[in-house]
């Protein structure tokens, strides 16, 4: 039994300060790279373009820019560790999809394990 989570909208919800903390504390990114990543994440604005009319610019407070080369690796760093929250399920991560699964002859046991994993994922995400 498996559960697939499409986390494509999660790019907009990444807590930048937690990501920077993980980059430094967990992955040992330091030197010039850490302030560069911080600037990449923190100095972002956006506007809407509709029929060649631009809206006002707004500052982003959270999230990772979508479509940038660095965004996917940063998102992967951000969600690393999620596998600890879905035990005893097995976990797979690819791009913006998280999958976890378990095998057992007892369907009720598998359902219970996956439901527990979903609750744990929710705790991880908050």
Automatic annotation (TrEMBL):
InterPro entries, per database record: RT_dom
GO molecular function list: RNA-directed DNA polymerase activity
UniProt cross-references to Pfam families, sorted A to Z: RVT_1
Reverse transcriptase domain sequence ranges: 1-126
Keywords, ordered alphabetically: Nucleotidyltransferase, RNA-directed DNA polymerase, Transferase
Domain of life where this protein originates: Eukaryota
PROSITE patterns the record matches: RT_POL
The keyword Ribonucleoprotein is assigned to this record: no
Keyword Transferase attached: yes
Protein name: Putative RNA-directed DNA polymerase from transposon BS
Organism, as annotated: Trichonephila inaurata madagascariensis
Lineage, uppermost ranks: Eukaryota, Metazoa, Ecdysozoa, Arthropoda, Chelicerata
């Amino acid at each position: 039994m498996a559960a697939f989570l499409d986390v494509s909208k999660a790019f907009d919800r990444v807590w930048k300060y937690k990501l920077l903390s993980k980059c430094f504390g967990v992955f040992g990114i330091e030197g010039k790279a850490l302030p560069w990543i911080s600037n990449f994440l923190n100095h972002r604005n956006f506007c809407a373009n509709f029929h060649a009319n631009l809206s006002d610019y707004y500052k982003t407070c959270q999230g990772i820019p979508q479509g940038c080369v660095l965004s996917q690796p940063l998102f992967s760093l951000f969600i690393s560790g999620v596998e600890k929250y879905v035990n005893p399920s097995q976990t797979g991560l690819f791009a913006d999809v998280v999958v976890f699964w378990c095998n057992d002859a007892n369907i009720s046991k598998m359902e219970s394990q996956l439901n527990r994993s979903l609750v744990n994922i929710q705790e991880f995400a908050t």
